[in-house]
């Protein structure tokens, strides 16, 4: 984790910012909960456990800065809540998500599924793509299994 914090510190420094204790607390929470797709409020509550003096506005400002610098991606799964996801190091693109419309679980696909689509869009529409996001909304395997079990019990 310390290596990753050092690299983020360098990214901030290159952009003219410092890794203040408040920013570091926020980054540490994001690193510790990398798979959780936390909202700003979630991040704030976790930061507050470690550093009670840090306010919600500071966490919001830090998340927005990290988003601007492409250290963090701000995502919305259609429920009106922005969530923050650390960008994988060296990733050319944002990763894809599978969102279960029943239980709300979120799975990630690290593989870039849109390379061919990007080539077509750039060629046919003369549109230079910088990034893309893909979210599939459906029913996860666990919920499908639950439905199948419920159906079997009715029969």
Automatic annotation (TrEMBL):
<keyword id="KW-0238">DNA-binding</keyword>
<keyword id="KW-0678">Repressor</keyword>
<keyword id="KW-0804">Transcription</keyword>
<dbReference type="InterPro" id="IPR043135">
    <property type="entry name" value="Fur_C"/>
</dbReference>
<dbReference type="GO" id="GO:0003700">
    <property type="term" value="F:DNA-binding transcription factor activity"/>
</dbReference>
<comment type="similarity">
    <text>Belongs to the Fur family.</text>
</comment>
<keyword id="KW-0479">Metal-binding</keyword>
<dbReference type="Pfam" id="PF01475">
    <property type="entry name" value="FUR"/>
</dbReference>
<protein>
    <submittedName>
        <fullName>Fur family transcriptional regulator, ferric uptake regulator</fullName>
    </submittedName>
</protein>
<dbReference type="InterPro" id="IPR036390">
    <property type="entry name" value="WH_DNA-bd_sf"/>
</dbReference>
<feature type="binding site">
    <location>
        <position position="100"/>
    </location>
    <ligand>
        <name>Zn(2+)</name>
    </ligand>
</feature>
<feature type="binding site">
    <location>
        <position position="115"/>
    </location>
    <ligand>
        <name>Fe cation</name>
    </ligand>
</feature>
<dbReference type="InterPro" id="IPR002481">
    <property type="entry name" value="FUR"/>
</dbReference>
<dbReference type="InterPro" id="IPR036388">
    <property type="entry name" value="WH-like_DNA-bd_sf"/>
</dbReference>
<feature type="binding site">
    <location>
        <position position="103"/>
    </location>
    <ligand>
        <name>Zn(2+)</name>
    </ligand>
</feature>
<feature type="binding site">
    <location>
        <position position="143"/>
    </location>
    <ligand>
        <name>Zn(2+)</name>
    </ligand>
</feature>
<dbReference type="GO" id="GO:1900376">
    <property type="term" value="P:regulation of secondary metabolite biosynthetic process"/>
</dbReference>
<dbReference type="GO" id="GO:0008270">
    <property type="term" value="F:zinc ion binding"/>
</dbReference>
<keyword id="KW-0862">Zinc</keyword>
<feature type="binding site">
    <location>
        <position position="140"/>
    </location>
    <ligand>
        <name>Zn(2+)</name>
    </ligand>
</feature>
<keyword id="KW-0408">Iron</keyword>
<dbReference type="GO" id="GO:0045892">
    <property type="term" value="P:negative regulation of DNA-templated transcription"/>
</dbReference>
<keyword id="KW-0805">Transcription regulation</keyword>
<feature type="binding site">
    <location>
        <position position="132"/>
    </location>
    <ligand>
        <name>Fe cation</name>
    </ligand>
</feature>
<dbReference type="GO" id="GO:0000976">
    <property type="term" value="F:transcription cis-regulatory region binding"/>
</dbReference>
